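A sample copied in:

***
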Amino acid sequence: MLEPGQPAPDFTLHDQNDKPVTMSGLKGKPIVLYFYPKDDTPGCTKEACGFRDAFAEYKKAGAVILGVSPDDTASHAKFAKKFDLPFTLLADEGSKVCAAYGVWKEKNMYGKKYMGVERTTFVIDAKGTVKTIFAKVKVDGHVDEVLEAIKS
């Protein structure tokens, strides 16, 4: 797992419009990089809609919001359209970026073990350094906590 103060691993992933987005190309602005398990599921929808509803505040703070999951670009496009998400969703098919950020973990549901994304948010400063990490995110109140971390 990454630690605050470390450089954020660079990557290039495709967004919901199938356009490549490179992390290092976003330097100069604070970045909210949030990893979530799956498009259009209850917790993930609630989290995405929370960021959507606070989007103007994040924009005012100069921040870029990037959502990352193992879903493909078509799934992201459908999810973004359905919920009118104004920010970028990145397709990490193969979960390589999830692994680089330490959020690809063994999970356990009803006694069945499987690999999946542990809901985690990274606040990355304008220089590309990890500033704050929110691990094992509980969705309620999370969007406000992240905004405070950007402003501090």
In short: The first helix runs from residue 42 to 53. The helical segments are 42-53, 55-60, 73-82, 96-100, 142-151. The first strand starts at residue 12 and ends at 15.
